[in-house]
Automatic annotation (TrEMBL), chain A:
Species of origin: Hypocrea jecorina (strain QM6a) (Trichoderma reesei)
Annotated GO CC locations: cytoplasmic exosome (RNase complex); nuclear exosome (RNase complex); nucleolus
Protein name (database record): Exosome complex component RRP45
One BP annotation, GO: U4 snRNA 3'-end processing
Protein's cellular compartments: Cytoplasm; Nucleus, Nucleolus
MF terms in GO: mRNA 3'-UTR AU-rich region binding
From TrEMBL, chain B:
Key words, A-Z: Exosome, RNA-binding
Domain K Homology: 143-197
A GO-annotated cellular component: nuclear exosome (RNase complex)
Keyword RNA-binding set for record: yes
Official protein name in the record: Predicted protein
Superkingdom assignment: Eukaryota
């Protein structure tokens, strides 16, 4: 297994020194994010997220849906799963089928933030109780990673799910009909709220310097980190602080406030991009008439 | 040599007029070119075609790629661990380490060899069998290490980088009164040291941005002005 890359002593001391002076290597402020770019694919449910420029984080999320049999203990619920993969394309030290700690933590965090917070109404995926349901699956591919994987991964998954359209269906008596996109316009998922993650990293001997959107190098040197998942209404889905130095309670509350501001920014960006994409697809302005979906 | 740079893609045909010819010296092919007998030259990399009529040499210049050590090149390495007589030095991430004998440091003897901790930086020269001692090379203390592309590190090591490589950022920064010290490794590493943290960041960013956006001379000057303004 290839050896994990390690920052040299000079890099360690210098980066810490710079952060204690309030400076960062790429000229950002301590509470400044890199530029977040989002683009949708030609197909529904493909989101490409890029954070930063040349040294960056890039992720591709793809949503797919198929009709299956629901789990026997949950006959009224559809199936919804998120799979994430960190392959050797990110760094040679990641191997396929041997999940590293980062990968497991990322998968668990996405699960807690999106699936368990009830962002997707799984009951709406049920077609025939106990017999037929939709199985929605999100595949998250990490193409390159330079720190702050969690925030960008969560954003990519939510963006792909919000963009996704599943084929329209109808039930007459016992027969279930799944329509092709040519017959009926596909319908969006029943989406209840959009949770996003905001990660804060702590530096300094006391852990009192807060830095957001850390790069890989900064991530190696942090003394603690804390991830908030919440939606734009300020409803917190989870807070995770896995080990590291203890942090003052007041600092955690401050971070929560900052997280709310950031999540509102994420929401606005996603809404704007979705509207832009809908406009691009709505050639001739016929989309509203084509849609056979009921208003919720 | 024509002034317009010529770009080639893998598999392109190279016009015969571009290939240098010399009465006595044989034609030397650099990286990125392949000879297909009897007389064809095929590029295997995308990049700029560079010819040298005097040396009767031709090669393809690219900025990217993984570093492959060659004898005689100056590199910046990170000490991984120390063995009995050698240091294991990593030249690029995720590759096998190189060996650096502890006695090859300047004026090092069995008793007075430098002690380097894991993570320390060294400026070194690649040799196949170690005989010579360091001249001006050795441990790099303090400062900051920046990762740059291989093309940029070759540019930085040119003797006349302003004329040949159209790289003026470092000269401009020095003219503006910023004091700093740099060391460039052919393995795509740039070490910068200065008294002030801000100056180190400014120099590193100047080089990295020039590298990433392949800025021209005027744009480099503008970038330096912007960075100087942020410094004061």
């Amino acid at each position: 297994m290839p050896r994990e890359a390690e920052p040299s002593l000079s890099e360690r001391t210098f980066t810490l020194q710079a952060i204690s002076e309030g400076l960062r290597l790429d000229g950002r402020k301590l509470d400044e994010f890199r530029r977040l770019e989002l683009s949708f694919g030609d197909e529904y449910g493909v989101a490409d997220v890029k954070l930063g420029k040349t040294r960056h984080v890039q992720l591709l999320a793809k949503v797919s849906a198929e009709v299956t049999v629901p789990f026997a203990d949950r006959p009224f619920d559809g199936i919804f799963q998120i799979t994430s993969e960190l392959g050797p394309m990110v760094a040679p030290s990641y191997e396929v089928n041997r999940p590293t700690e980062t990968e497991v933590l990322l998968a668990r965090l996405l699960e807690k933030t999106i699936r368990r917070s009830g962002a997707l109404d799984t009951e709406s995926l049920c077609l025939v109780a106990g017999q037929k349901c939709w199985s929605v699956r999100v595949d998250l591919h990490v193409l390159s990673a330079d720190g702050n994987l969690i925030d960008s991964a969560c954003f990519a998954v939510v963006a792909a799910l919000r963009h996704f359209r599943k084929p329209d269906t109808s039930i007459e008596g016992e027969t279930l009909t799944v329509y092709t996109p040519a017959e009926r316009e596909p319908v969006p998922l029943s989406w209840l709220h959009s949770p996003f993650c905001a990660t804060f990293d702590f530096f300094g001997d006391e852990g009192d310097i807060v830095v957001v959107d850390t790069t890989w190098l900064e991530e190696q040197l942090r003394v603690a980190s804390c991830t908030f998942s919440l939606n734009k209404h300020g409803e917190i889905c989870q807070i995770s602080k896995l080990g590291g130095r203890p942090i003052e309670a007041t600092l955690v509350i401050q971070c929560a406030q900052m997280a709310l501001a950031k999540v509102k920014e994420f929401t606005d960006l996603l809404d704007a991009k979705l509207a832009e994409d809908a406009k691009r697809r709505d050639k001739g302005g016929l989309m509203a008439e084509l849609s056979a979906e009921n208003e919720r | 040599m024509s002034s317009e740079p010529i770009f080639v893609l893998p598999g392109d045909r190279i016009d015969a007029s571009l290939i240098p010819s010399h009465e006595k010296k044989p034609l030397r092919l650099g990286p990125g070119l392949r000879h297909v007998p009897p007389s064809d030259l095929v590029p295997t990399l995308a990049g700029q075609l560079v010819t040298d009529r005097q040396k009767n040499a031709i090669r393809v210049e690219t900025a990217n790629g993984r570093y492959i050590p060659r004898v005689g090149e100056l590199v910046i390495g990170t000490v991984n661990k120390s063995a009995q007589e050698v240091y294991f030095v990593s030249l690029s991430d995720y590759t096998a380490p190189a060996l650096l004998p502890q006695l090859s440091f300047e004026s090092a003897t069995k008793k007075t060899r430098p002690i380097l901790l894991p993570g320390a930086l060294v400026y070194a020269r690649c040799v196949s069998a170690s005989t010579g001692k360091a001249d001006g090379l050795g441990p790099l203390v303090g400062g900051m290490l920046f990762t740059i592309s291989l093309g940029m590190s070759r540019l930085l090591m040119m003797p006349k980088k302003a004329q040949q490589g159209r790289l003026v950022v470092l000269d401009e920064l020095a003219d503006a009164g910023v004091q700093f010290e740099t060391a460039t490794g052919r393995n795509g590493r740039l070490w910068v040291d200065s008294d002030s943290t801000k100056a180190i960041i400014a120099v590193g960013r100047a080089i990295q941005e020039t590298d990433e956006k392949s800025l021209g001379v005027d744009e480099q000057r503008r970038l330096v002005k912007k960075l100087i303004k942020e410094l004061s």
